[in-house]
Design a protein that fits this description.
9 helices, 76% helix
Length: 200
């Protein structure tokens, strides 16, 4: 049920409940009888029963799993003790609370429709993690094949040459100078890494 229709139906039930409450009659105790409680009666008990059934039906249909249904039914059970005005106030209060629940849920649904920034953040985090794993695989493969001195020679190229294109040429020359097996072994280490191997 759309929020506007639900609120209209709840408000109608609230108004009907208030009208029923207006016509509750106090039953005075008989002469020479002293009571420790007040007794009331409905002007039209059938009207109350219809209102009660409509309310329970609406709550059961629209607020499944919410405590309002149990609260409503518990107040109905207590009504056998004839505290009709205060009990009816409780029932009306439960219906009023449901109008707030409906508004809050509707706001949450509209907020849930705007979760794309969170998804973008998660995607960015996942991409960053994947990139870091890839970088680590390459670095580990290189470190496994180069000696400490060879790594220092490559680091020196990075420090001396600012232009990435020039440094690329010098690094290729330097790696070739270490021997063809070094390059082949670096590539083999990358390919046989479990994270990469699983992609083939």
């Amino acid at each position: 049920m759309e929020e506007e229709n639900l609120l209209a139906e709840l408000n109608n039930l609230i108004d009907e409940g208030k009208e029923i409450k207006k016509h509750i009659k106090y039953v005075p105790s008989p002469e020479n009888v002293w009571r420790t409680y007040s007794v009331y009666k409905f002007q039209d008990y059938q009207l109350f029963e219809i209102w009660k059934s409509k309310s329970i039906r609406l709550l059961s249909r629209e607020f499944k799993g919410d405590r309002c249904i149990k609260d409503f039914e518990e107040v109905i059970k207590e009504m056998k003790y004839t505290k009709y005005p205060s009990d009816l106030d409780k029932l009306i209060g439960i219906l009023k609370a449901c109008t707030f629940i409906s508004k809050i849920e509707n706001e949450q649904e509209s907020n849930d429709n705007n979760i794309s920034p969170i998804i973008n953040i998660n995607n960015t985090q996942n991409q960053t993690q994947s990139q870091m794993i890839a970088v680590n695989i390459f670095v580990d493969a290189i470190r496994d094949e180069l000696t400490g001195n060879q790594i220092k020679e490559i680091q020196a190229i990075f420090e001396q040459v600012d232009n990435p294109i020039d440094s690329k040429k010098k690094i290729i020359e330097k790696l070739k100078s270490f021997g063809e097996n070094v390059l082949t072994n670096i590539i083999a280490n990358i390919i046989t890494n479990p994270s990469v191997w699983g992609q083939f």
